[in-house]
């Protein structure tokens, strides 16, 4: 297993180093001995964790933060061209490396497993990383979220396996050359970058074409978009194709799935054998993620029995149905779900664990473009809750779109019979939750923005 620093990345500067993907790159490079520096817009737990690893982090973006001896600048798609550090790099003629290119360089000499597709990349990647680690295989990994603590989204291992979350949102997953690829789902998302399903299919085909000769693609057998992609891939030379799911024709077939509160037990048929193992997160969606992880690990040569047992050691990832606490008899759980399919899957999973209590949601829409395209479906998903509070749209990297507000979601939700209340200011959420929640209820803070910060505030208010 090589732990060499990729050429030209001996002294990298990462703009937005505190982000989920960028912080992982920083940790991996530091683990290989690079002199890593970077900047972020604000201090955070992640920034503190990177500093503890010896990474030099500047708070704020200024041209002078770029060291004189920097060998390259690493950016993500979220960094705008007018960023002063990026402009300084251009003025000096320094190489500018996209985050995915940096990750591809780190994966180049490993046996890579890349996890792509909508809804479940972080969870599936995490499950594999945790299970392979539990088996003593010391994988390297890069995940789009923290397993259990800030900075745990990446690790430089000593084994030859490298598990990585492969982001299709901006086509950056085209940089990777995996031995095993997973495609969980194929849906029209990321509307700023894809105009149609044909563009989505073309992009995934490009990703599959990057799988190493005689490598394996593990793909969903239940979801319509994934099945259509499988049909388009039929007969690809040098590609082993393994399907998974509940469909009768799945190669790794789920034959039983039993929920048990906030956990579940899944039984699969694989290679003529039956395996039953536990999944420590609730719901059908997460059980299927575990089956995808099992199929990929087996394709990489990991024994199925041991891997199935090791998958039970996975206990979750930050923001993926993460239990935040209980106060006044009310449990609070945080969800990263921001696409209608994810929202519905998490609400169905939580319903199974809520018992006789109600499921109450605090939802923050993410991105104007996503709300414009999928606001109706978001509202329909919220009808699965007993009551919802809907916040203003979290813009992230986007500028507002005229006429696109949370009202699109609220109106759609009410049309589907949902009990929905708009709450524009985040500061008003704790009191609003306290006004409707009672003992036995379960509150889900949901969205990809800063709604995640409200869980502790809600718990504090409920405790009064």
UniProtKB/TrEMBL annotation:
Top-rank EC class of the record's enzyme: ligase
Keyword ATP-binding among record annotations: yes
Involved pathway(s): Cell wall biogenesis; peptidoglycan biosynthesis
InterPro entries tied to this protein: Mur-like_cat_sf, Mur_ligase_C, Mur_ligase_C_dom_sf, Mur_ligase_cen, Mur_ligase_N, MurCDEF_pg_biosynth, UDP-N-AcMur_Ala_ligase_MurC
Gene Ontology CC, one term: cytoplasm
GO biological process: cell division; cell wall organization; peptidoglycan biosynthetic process; regulation of cell shape
UniProt domain Mur ligase N-terminal catalytic: residue ranges: 13-109
Mur ligase central domain mapped to chain residues: 115-296
UniProt entry tagged with the keyword Cell division: yes
Family in the record: Belongs to the MurCDEF family.
PANTHER family listed in its UniProt record: UDP-N-ACETYLMURAMATE--L-ALANINE LIGASE, UDP-N-ACETYLMURAMATE--L-ALANINE LIGASE-RELATED
Protein name, as recorded: UDP-N-acetylmuramate--L-alanine ligase
Organism in which the protein naturally occurs: Streptomyces sedi
Gene name, Swiss-Prot/TrEMBL: murC
């Amino acid at each position: 297993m090589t732990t060499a620093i990729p050429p030209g990345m001996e002294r990298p500067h990462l703009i937005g180093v505190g982000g989920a993907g960028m912080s992982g790159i920083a940790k991996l490079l530091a683990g290989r001995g690079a002199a890593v520096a970077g900047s972020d817009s604000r201090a955070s737990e992640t920034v503190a964790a990177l500093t503890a690893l010896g990474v030099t982090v500047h708070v704020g973006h200024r041209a002078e933060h770029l060291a004189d001896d920097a060998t390259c600048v690493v950016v993500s798609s979220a960094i705008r061209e007018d960023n002063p550090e990026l402009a300084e790099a251009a003025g000096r003629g320094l190489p500018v490396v996209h985050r995915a290119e940096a990750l591809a360089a780190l994966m180049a000499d490993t046996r890579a497993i890349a996890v792509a597709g909508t809804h479940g990349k972080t969870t599936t990647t995490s499950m594999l990383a945790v299970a392979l680690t539990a088996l003593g295989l010391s994988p390297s990994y890069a995940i789009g979220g923290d397993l259990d603590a800030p900075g745990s989204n990446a690790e430089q291992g000593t084994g030859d396996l490298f598990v990585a979350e492969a982001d299709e949102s901006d086509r950056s997953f085209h940089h990777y050359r995996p031995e095993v690829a997973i495609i969980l789902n194929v849906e029209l998302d990321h509307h700023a970058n894809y105009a149609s399903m044909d563009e989505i299919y073309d992009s995934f085909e490009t990703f599959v074409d990057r799988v190493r000769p005689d490598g394996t693609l593990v793909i969903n057998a239940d979801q319509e978009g994934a099945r259509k992609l499988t049909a388009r891939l039929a007969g690809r030379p040098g590609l082993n194709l393994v399907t998974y799911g509940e469909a009768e024709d799945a190669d790794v077939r789920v034959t039983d799935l039993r929920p048990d509160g906030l956990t579940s037990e899944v039984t699969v048929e694989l290679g003529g054998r039956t395996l039953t193992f536990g999944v420590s997160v609730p719901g059908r969606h997460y059980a299927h993620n575990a089956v995808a992880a099992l199929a990929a690990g087996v394709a990489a040569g990991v024994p199925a029995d041991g891997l199935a047992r090791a998958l039970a050691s996975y206990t979750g990832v930050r923001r993926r149905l993460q239990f935040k606490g209980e106060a006044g008899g009310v449990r609070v759980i945080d969800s990263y779900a921001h696409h209608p399919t994810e929202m519905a899957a998490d609400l169905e999973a939580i319903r199974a664990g809520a018992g006789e209590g109600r499921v109450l949601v605090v939802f923050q829409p993410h991105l104007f473009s996503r709300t414009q395209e999928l606001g109706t479906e978001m509202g329909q998903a919220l009808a699965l809750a007993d009551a919802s509070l809907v916040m203003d749209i979290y813009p992230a990297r986007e500028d507002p779109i005229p006429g696109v507000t949370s009202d699109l979601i609220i109106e759609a939700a009410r049309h589907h019979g949902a009990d929905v209340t708009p709450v524009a200011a985040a500061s008003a959420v704790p009191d609003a939750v306290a006004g409707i929640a009672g003992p036995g209820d379960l509150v889900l803070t949901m969205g990809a923005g800063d709604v995640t910060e409200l869980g502790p505030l809600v718990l504090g208010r409920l405790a009064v």
